[in-house]
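Appendix B. Raw example, untouched.
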Amino acid sequence: MTLDDLPLAEFAFPGPLRDSLVAAILSGAKTSTTGLLIGYERANETLPEVGQRSAVVDSAGRRVAVIELTDVRVLRLADVDLRHAVAEGEGDESVAQWRAGHEMFWHSPEVRAELDDPGFTVDDDTPVVTQRFRLVYVVRTAIGPPWSEGSPMLGA
């Protein structure tokens, strides 16, 4: 398996928010993320699984790193804890602060358009998919493709 064979891990939409999230992943500050269960359902996507590896892409669509999932849970939004919120690496110091930022994103025109629901809102009972991950590899673009067939980074 090569880097190009990995599924993509796209954080937010291309632009400043994605760039800051990718930078936090590359620095090691971001080791968790949260998505809406309804997003997976509407896209007809299966939920991610522990052990799954993905290629993190930046706003230009370049594969810049590989992450591996270490935990995946479906929770009520109200049940997301401080440990998870802090591990998102966005500087939040409370669950309330984390939730306010995520609600602003989830209520954005882009998310509502992606869900094809202009009035979409979240509440305490909204199911979310929390994921914890570890940074496996950072792509070194200056020296060419770092991956090869049988690379231990991409092994089973």
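End of appendix B.
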